[in-house]
Specification:
- Chain A: GO terms for molecular function: ATPase activator activity; double-stranded DNA binding.
- The structure holds 2 protein chains of 2 kinds.
- By secondary structure, chain A is α+β, with helices and mostly antiparallel strands.
- Chain A folds into 3 domains: about 110 residues, no CATH class; about 170 residues, no CATH class; about 100 residues, no CATH class.
- Chain A is built from 22 helices and 15 strands.
- Chain B has one domain: TFB5-like (Alpha-Beta Plaits).
- Classes of the chains: A alpha+beta, B alpha+beta.
Chain lengths: ~425, ~80
């Protein structure tokens, strides 16, 4: 699963997904201004500035031989996405004119207008609005947590809270195994639970799109709705109401219902005819590297003596935590565990990496320990990494050995060939 | 005139520290894994082994390291 290997500096998962799509479909997407605008936001700053300079100076050609290294990797990426095209002769490349037009008209219209959603003015009463906002946030978090809880602890009671679409996506993604009532979480699924919320929502969405693609359905319809919603987030104060679009196709309506189930949008009653955007949807506007912006306060304190305190009663958090800690005490609103070599090894053996454990502890840190300079004591994070290293003393590489040369006195480098 | 053919063998090249290499040689000589598996010792930190051995070797090493873990032996 290449998504999990993406470091901070690498491309957003959506861009990687886009690059894997077939050319025609990608071409149709790029012709849409709202899509261009959304895509642009996901690029790294250096790629953005490269695109901008090309957009405003349409005569400018990219001469690869005049470019420096980081620029070249940007250009290669853009070429994979068909945003930069080969210009026939003499090794020059140009910006795709369709993308240029799309981005310009999107940018001139503003992200909100190009989303073409009709906002409804919210209540005049500020107090009432505030209360409602809180409601929306709470409800949307509950919805997303239902999915995670189902994944962490598949049982009859949690199955009721997720739709069959969700179950299909999780199964196709390889996060769960088994069918019907006999569902179990896989090690891939555990890795998913350890991700930060931004990465979770992104990787869920990508898996959903992948599933649609595999079944031969076009993802354009779905992306249309999703990206336009995501564009509204940036331009407006949170939790504004929008009218439900009557021109949606049946498939798009189903997709919207699915988004509602995931807590990405909030619809009070279906016949009301409007929906709210939730902060969870805002996660989709962030590329991977913006993780730090969404810091929520968690409930975990890690001490230098490897003790872990979790001030929570959420069975989900505790289930995740107990996958790599040895739980010792459990009270109704806090639990205590110890990170031991055995408990961490157990997690490592099912394919969870040390970095995933550490980043889980970091993202779910208690505000109290966040205020110190090191939320996770260095002794603990180092030790977890050492436990991981201890398991990989040998590095394997596939190779071919060439032997019985005339002279055996050559150094081994000359007769090994790494495949 | 004797024409010698060059032999080609596919396998795995293992990179490790010198101590691990000695352990591998020991496992090879004592046939602890059922058979010999080292094809060629390249230098202090590289060794060329049979492809099939990887899983068996990994499990064996995990057991050995576990047995040597001070937390267990001190008990």
């Amino acid at each position: 699963m290449d998504f999990f290997r993406m470091g901070d500096s690498e491309v957003a998962p959506f861009i990687a997904f886009l690059a894997s799509m077939n050319r025609e479909e990608r071409g149709r997407l790029i012709s849409d201004p709202s899509f261009c605008l959304f895509l642009f936001r996901l690029f790294s700053p250096s790629t953005q500035s490269l695109i901008l300079s090309l957009i405003w100076d349409s005569t400018q050609l990219i001469r690869i031989d005049e470019r420096i290294e980081p620029d070249i990797s940007c250009v290669t990426l853009l070429e994979q996405l068909d945003i930069v095209l080969q210009n026939g002769v003499n090794n020059t490349k140009i910006l795709n004119p369709i993308f240029r037009r799309g981005y310009l008209s999107g940018a001139l219209e503003g992200s909100h207008r190009s989303s073409r959603f009709v906002p409804i003015n919210s209540e005049k009463d500020i107090d009432k609005k505030k209360k409602k906002d809180k409601d929306v946030v709470k409800k949307s978090n509950e919805r997303w947590e239902c999915l995670l809880r189902f994944l962490a602890l598949p049982s009859e009671s949690t199955v009721q809270n997720v739709s069959s679409t969700t179950r299909d996506v999780l199964n196709h993604a390889g996060f769960t195994s088994g069918h019907g009532t006999d569902i179990e979480i896989t090690s891939k699924g555990f890795q998913f639970l350890l991700l930060s919320p931004v990465k979770q929502i992104w990787s869920y969405m990508i898996e959903l799109l992948k599933m649609e693609t595999r079944e031969g359905r076009s993802v354009k319809e779905l992306l249309d709705v999703l990206l336009r919603m995501a564009l509204c987030i940036h331009s407006e104060p949170e939790n504004k109401k929008y009218e439900v679009d009557n021109s949606w196709t049946e498939r798009q309506c189903n997709f919207v219902t699915h988004l509602r189930e995931l807590g990405l949008i909030f619809i009070r009653k279906r016949k009301d005819g409007f929906f709210y955007l939730t902060p969870n949807l805002a996660n989709l506007c962030l590329a991977n590297h913006d993780d730090s912006l969404t810091k929520k306060s968690g409930s975990i304190i890690v001490e230098t003596n490897f003790r872990v305190y979790a001030y929570t009663s959420s069975s989900l958090q505790l289930a995740i935590l107990s996958s790599f800690t040895c739980m010792t005490y459990r009270f109704h609103d806090m639990s205590v565990g110890i990170l031991t070599r055995d408990s961490v090894r157990k997690a490592l053996q099912v394919g969870i990496t040390a970095n995933q454990i550490i980043s889980f502890l970091k993202t779910n840190c208690h505000p109290e320990s966040l205020s110190t300079s090191l939320p996770i004591p260095i002794t603990v994070s180092d030790q977890i990494r050492l436990w991981e290293d201890e398991r990989k003393r040998l590095i394997y590489q596939e190779a071919a050995l060439y032997s019985s040369f005339e002279s055996e006195k050559v150094s081994w480098i000359k007769y090994i060939c790494i495949i | 005139i004797l024409i010698r053919m060059v032999n080609v063998k596919k396998g795995l090249m293992v990179t490790c520290d010198p101590a691990m290499k000695q352990l591998l040689i020991h496992l090879d000589e004592t046939r602890a894994l059922g058979s010999k598996f080292i094809v060629k010792e390249l230098d202090d930190t590289h060794i060329f082994v049979d492809k099939e051995i990887q899983e068996v070797l990994d499990n064996k090493l995990d057991d050995l390291m576990e047995a040597m873990n001070p937390e267990n032996t001190d008990k």
